[in-house]
Amino acid sequence: LDDDLAANVSSDIHSAFSLQGIQGCSIDRIDLLKPPDVAHILFTSGSTGVPKGVMVTHQSVLAFVDWAVKYFSINNTDRVSGHAPLHFDLSVFDIFGAFAAGAELHLVPDNFKMRPDLLVSWIRDQRLTQWFSVPAAFTYVAKFNALNAVKLPCLKRVIWCGEVLPVPSQVYWMQHVPQASFTNLYGPTETTIASSYYTVVECPTDQVTEIPIGQGCEGEAIRVLNKDMQPCDVGEIGDLYISGVGLSPGYWKNEDANSQAFIIDAASGERCYRTGDLGRLGADHEIYFVGRTDTQVKSRGFRIEIGEIEAALNAVDVLRESAIVALASSNFDGVTLCCSYVARDNDALSPVVVRAALRRALPWYMIPSRWQQHDTLPRNGSGKIDRPQLKEYWLTSKNTRAAEVPHV
Q1: Cα angle value 245/260/255 (rounded, 5°)
Q2: To the nearest 5 percent, what fractions of the chain are helix, strand and coil?
Q3: Which helix (H) or strand (E) holds 159?
Q4: Which of 190, 225, 330, 356 is most buried per CB count within 10 Å?
Q5: Dist. CA 333–CA 298, nearest whole Å
Q6: Cβ–Cβ < 8 Å for 204, 171
Q7: Which residue, 156, 197, 163, 146, is CA-closest to 177?
Q8: Which of 198, 196, 153 minimizes the C-alpha distance to 177?
Q9: Can you count the helices (H) and strands (E) in the chain?
């Protein structure tokens, strides 16, 4: 833009978003939009490749919001959190779920989001009845024992989505906020906010209990299918597919990606989304998340799911957080498993100690061979651990100091 045009655009924006500009707007209803029309485009984090623009329709958002308000019994007495940034689809539920029910929406101050002491005090002071966020916020509160000094008597619902919530963090929250219900939501951006749900019946009795992602929300179906697109048997790991009202029309101007991700199920004739996630049907007929198809690796002759290693690390008391990265290797390993971790008390923590704790929970072939302590782990704009950045960290020459712990 040239200087004159830029000045005019700036002036127009300022006028439109001033009180005088808003008061000058027409109050006549505009009926130009239809439910199938695209409401917004959200870009994926690009954690497994180049970010893609996901088109989300009005009817998909309305379908989820209508279900969620009804399922969670949200009403005009509720005070709900707004923790997710606007570019992350969890914020759509925060905003429009609150508006649909006439509830109060309380936006979390940015400087509180990663300060567990300030965060829980803010939840208490705002008298929130619903807390919804990614698991990282729960984990920080648990690891810093922030609920020991601050009680949250008004909180009725605790909801998480976006990543697997470590069971130790969930147990901590359930023990400190016993009056609240706890619900796990699952679903990629391509299926609008979330597609399945599971409300935890009782507090887990151990640190490695698996929490299901449950069953499809109203109007949605989530299935575990094998390579032939047939339903998997109980206990069999397969690919997760989602169909129904939340399905995106596709990626913005990216037909190659659309043809790979959005397919027609020959058996049902339904259009569905291949999530890239692995799951299995439990004996309880609930669906369990296993991991990503691109995080299942073969090392030392064994097929390994990285998520299983991270789940075991989450149960190690001396760690605040951790992540596993797999690097291509030319030796017998096939891939090299690298562990990045943050100590609970920010003290120096030997990899030997962490490895010994992990060895008590996992077989030898699942134990990482490279270890590195960090002050913090990198995160992307959605608050999730930034695995591509960690992978780059491990690939750079500056990490020659990373500890190699022999397998004995």
Answers
A1: 85
A2: 30, 25, 40
A3: strand 157-160
A4: 190
A5: 8
A6: yes
A7: 156
A8: 153
A9: 11, 21
Residues 219, 69: Cα–Cα separation, whole Å: 15
Which contiguous run of DSSP H or E holds residue 135? Answer: helix 135-143
Cα distance between residue 170 and residue 175, in whole Å: 9
The tens digit of pLDDT for each residue in 355-376 reads 999 998 888 888 998 999 999 8
For the chain, the farthest-separated pair of C-alpha atoms sits apart, in whole angstroms, at: 75
Helix H or strand E encompassing 67: helix 58-71
What is the CA angle 390-113-39, rounded to 5? 85
pLDDT for 17 equals 59
Say which amino acid occupies 77.
T
Closest CA to 166 of 201, 196, 197, 211: 211
Query: What global pTM score does this model have?
Result: 0.75
SS3 221: strand
Evaluate whether 42 touches 86 at the Cβ level (below 8 Å). Answer: no
For 209-349, where are the E strands, in sequence order? 215-216, 220-225, 237-244, 250-251, 262-264, 271-281, 287-292, 296-299, 302-305, 319-328, 335-343
Each residue's pLDDT tens digit, 173-216: 999 999 999 999 999 999 999 999 999 999 998 877 889 999 99
**Strand, coil or helix: 270:** coil
Please state the φ and ψ torsions of residue 93, each to the nearest 5 degrees. Answer: -70, -45
Please give the full DSSP string across 382-395, using - where no structure is assigned.
TSSB-HHHHHHHHH
Question: How far is the C-alpha of 378 from the C-alpha of 381, rounded, in Å?
Answer: 10
Q: Is 262 strand, coil or helix? A: strand
Residues of the chain under the 50 pLDDT cut: 1-14, 397, 399-401, 406-408
Q: Within a 10 A sphere around the Cβ of 252, how many other Cβ atoms?
A: 16
CA distance 161 to 136: 10
